[in-house]
Amino acid sequence: MKRSRSRSNGFNGRTAFYQAALGKTFVNYEHEVVFDLKDLQITRSELATRFGCCHLSAARRLSNNLKLHGITRVNELHATPPDELMGLAGVGVVQLFVALCILSEHGIDIEKYYGYDADTVTANTLRLRAKRAAEQAR
C-alpha cells in the first residue's frame, strides 16, 4: 500500500478515539494514496475532506487511466478537454467527477473547463460522442 508523505488526516487530533472506535486498520488506511500523479498525491481522507469527493475506486481508476495515456501532471489533466477525457478507455462519469473535483481544488473554473452547457450536454453525451468518433475513425 502506497502511503502519502503527509501525515495530516481528518481525525482532528482524535486519532486515538477513532482508532479505538473504528479499528486500527481503518485509521491506517486513511493515509493510503488513491490518486497519484507526478505533482499530486491524494490520500483517502484528503479526497473526502479537501476535494469533497468520496469515490475512492474512481480516483484510483482515473489515476491509472491518466498515466496509461501519458497524462502525468495536473496541468496536463487541465489541458485535456472533457470530451477527450471521456473518450479514454475506462473513463466514465464518476472519473470525470473526480477530475472536476481535483481541477476545482486547483483553482480552475470547472464550468469554463467543461465548455458545454451542462443542461444539454452531459458527461454521458460526451462519452457517446467520443465512442462514435472512435468507431468512425476505424
Structural class: mainly alpha
Oligomer: single chain
Distance between the termini: 40 Å
Please state the CA-atom Rg, rounded to the nearest Å: 17 Å
Proportion in β-strands:
5-15%
Order of helices and strands: HHEEHHHHHHH
Tally the beta strands: 2
Spatial sequence of strands, sheet with the most strands: 1-2
Poorly predicted regions are 4-8
Helix content class: 55-70%
* Count of the domains: 1
Number of H- or I-type helical stretches: 9
Average pLDDT level: 87
The backbone outline, from C-alpha atoms, is elongated
Tell me the major beta sheet: 2 strands, antiparallel
Description of the molecule:
With 138 residues, this protein is mainly alpha-helical. It has one domain. 56% of the residues lie in helices and 7% in strands. The chain is built from nine helices and two strands, in the order ααββααααααα. It has helices at residues 15-22, 24-29, 44-49, 56-68, 74-79, 82-86, 93-105, 110-114, 123-137; strands spanning 33-37, 40-43. It has a two-stranded antiparallel ribbon. α4 (56-68) crosses α7. The longest helix has 15 residues, at 123-137. The model is unreliable at 4-8 (pLDDT under 50).
